Amino acid sequence: MISSNPFTPQSGWEPKIFGGRSRELEIFKSNLDGALDARPSHLIVLGEWGVGKTSLLKQFRRISQENGFPAAFCGISKFTEKNKALDAIHLIAEEMVMGFPKIDTVQKNLLELFSKRKSLSNGQVQFTKFLLELWKALDTKLAVVLLDDIQNLMEVSNTIDILRAVLSSDNVIKETRFLFILSSTPLGWESFIDKHDPVGRFFRKRLNAENLEKSEAMATIDMTLRGTGVVFEECIRKNIFKYTGGHPYEVQLLASHLYDSQIEGRVNTDSWDNALNNTLKELGRDYFNFLLSKASDREKDLLKILAEEKKPITIKDFTTMMIVGKRAKKFPIANIKNFLYRLEEKGLVRRMENSGFYIQDLMFSEFIARFALE
Ligand SMILES: Nc1ncnc2c1ncn2[C@@H]1O[C@H](COP(=O)(O)OP(=O)(O)OP(=O)(O)O)[C@@H](O)[C@H]1O
Ligand SMILES: [Mg+2]
Predict the structure, then answer these.
(1) What is the domain range of residue 321?
(2) 265 and 2 in contact (C-beta within 8 Å)?
(3) 350 with 358: CB under 8 angstroms?
């Protein structure tokens, strides 16, 4: 009997097997211990799209609760410039009330602290009162609050400044013990520290969520498959890492498509091309089309060459290619250098000293070669 697909190719779905991240989990544990006797040192987890921020925060929640400390996970939805910081603060409070166990009885009273929706300074006062009251209701030594996707508050960025002000106020420090863990994309977080320097200093400790190492990614795949009745052949396992570079979402998506193509419980090279195609189509819809839309038409011509050649190319080689050979075409040769530097600035290509430009993410490169343009 073959089990149903054990992979979790969805944003925010906790993986069946949580791979790697031992360093991040250690840091969190030591922060948790430290927060018992000293002022909590709040953390920010930074990571790009799909790299596993939400899943990591959910692990932190599990560890907190295992150690007897209540933890509330709060997903921050997208705010626009029409919203006020007070709306955002109110949402955070609501999510906290819902996230902590045994709070529902006092829930109504707690949120009534927000009934008079007025000015900015009010937001700060109200959130302070809220934390003080919530603390009493929680009856614990330490409580953990996980705020996921802080970049969604970018348009009302003073929310984070209010949070900082509240958490560093005397009352809150003396009377409560909340440990806050935030997550954000690196770009989103930059926007807060640009405008509000104290915020950057307050959430000093940063954890960078990155791709899984080869051994971690392979172990995750093997353990996820265990007991399902499906086996991936060695070349398939190796190819998954080669193509995804250990990016957690890409690993889950590709492995999920491969799993669905099993014949009598085996997945071999016959399945590869089709599974990769389906994966790339989905990645295109989720992210790659957006990434590609940052390039101009001329820049896309160069990207396509890089994707097809699958190796670093120098400015000189590009120029020659445009003049002679199968790629020769009418192209503003004098501007090749500018186009390439622009692509680098936009994060679409990388540059290697002396050997030229290349596309770092092999999945993105395959996507361009197979689907982009023409
Ligand atoms: N440590 C891990 N081991 C195995 N799979 C993981 C791990 N972390 C995340 N994943 C998987 O990767 C995918 C993306 O994870 P997650 O949603 O946590 O990332 P994210 O950074 O929060 O993404 P988003 O940018 O969409 O918010 C999910 O399919 C999840 O199951
Ligand atoms: Mg997420």
Answers:
(1) 296-371
(2) yes
(3) yes
160 and 102 housed in the same domain: yes
Q: Specify the residue with its C-alpha closest to ligand 1, atom 25.
A: 49
The reply to whether 286 and 303 lie within a common domain is: no
pLDDT above 90 for 308: yes
**313 bridge partner residues:** 357
Under the banding of pLDDT at 50, 70 and 90, the label for residue 209 is very high
Per-residue model confidence as pLDDT tens digits over 59-101: 999 999 999 999 999 999 998 888 888 889 989 998 998 889 7
User: Number of structural domains, the chain?
Assistant: 3
- 4 within a domain of the structure (yes/no): no
- pTM of the complete model beyond 0.70: yes
Task: State the distance from the centre of ligand 1 to the C-alpha of 250, rounded, in angstroms.
Answer: 9
**Residues having C-beta closer than 5 Å to ion ligand 2:** 53-54
* Residue 340 resides in a domain: yes
- Residue whose tokens read 């699958």: 310
What letter represents residue 144's amino acid? Answer: V
Tokens 């990388």 belong to residue: 350
